[in-house]
């Protein structure tokens, strides 16, 4: 009898081992993308922040790879999110600015998203948080491949509340916020509530985290894709009582500490449900910090300027990628990668199919898993102001084309939630060597005319393909955004 029991235990153990191996190698890992709003390059400890700790970001860095030259396609909310979900330059698909509640533009439902391509592979797909690609049905997430959605349609500063959290009456003259509706909360296409005050906004991080944990637990036995787009640390800053005053680095530090807690809870949920080793986890930000808000904005770590500009402070963002057993733990990569590359990389990891229409992202899975050492990307075109080609990143060079830009560095930042005034300046053509000059201070175009010539050829290719308003060029391969009625 003892021998039979022992044999059964052995067979059961072998079955469990086989099941675990099958879970990891069946070609369908779970996928989670967590996106922060306006979190700066240096807002977490692995990227050099000062003044507060981020232990869960540290843990995430130790479990996967940290990208040091990762870029958002454009330094503004809507455009960046469109790029992440579709793998396209925002200008290619007609989205180049932040959509307000009054806008009639939306992401075209014909565009295939990460959710669309994974749903075709049998994935359960869910989104939580800030959408910002269309403010009403049928231009909300469940019409773009997501089975479920809970969150807000746009940034939480589009509301009738002033910088100090006080209501803005509808008849207030010369204040655009007076025309905004109370910030709605949606579940699917149905409005289920509102966020009328900063106190209500302070619950956003906790609520979204709890819903993310529930989604993971509910779908642990099937492949799933979860897109969690935290509305913070975008202003106005709001933090729950659990973290208020706890970071020792002011309200901004408190908010990042709560987001760090959120990352930890999601990692715990994966481990608790036994699926951490079969989950590809990507954590990044939609653009750099809003520097005009001073102590209510994040840090670029010394990169030039910030959100709303084409400079690295606006487009270069933190990015953590973890996939146990596939991506080397504790690794760091200085290779050029963009948020457009996330879709094709996920496609490579899940054996899904790329969208039918042309995309601009590239598959980084071979590099991330160590099969190749070099980035498949050499060029990144930085557009802003809808369709102005302002900067071209080529390998380790950055060519700046003449343009007009916000210049945070030439104005005094705001304080405690009220923004400072930001001057605009005319930016001349310049070439920067990012190896020796990451802050882009020394123009070396006179020393490297051959590099300028090579990059200008690339500029012409971009102008022919996607256009350039600065040179009055119309692209041949752009696709229209959708128009809401």
Automatic annotation (TrEMBL):
UniProt cross-references to InterPro entries, sorted A to Z: Alkaline_phosphatase_core_sf, Sulfatase, Sulfatase_N
Keyword field: Hydrolase, Signal
Signal peptide: 1-19
UniProt-listed Enzyme Commission number(s): 3.1.6.1
Domain Sulfatase N-terminal, first and last residues per copy: 29-351
Pfam families: Sulfatase
GO terms for MF: arylsulfatase activity
Family: Belongs to the sulfatase family.
Protein name as catalogued: Arylsulfatase
Organism field: Flavobacterium granuli
Higher taxonomy: Bacteria, Pseudomonadati, Bacteroidota, Flavobacteriia, Flavobacteriales
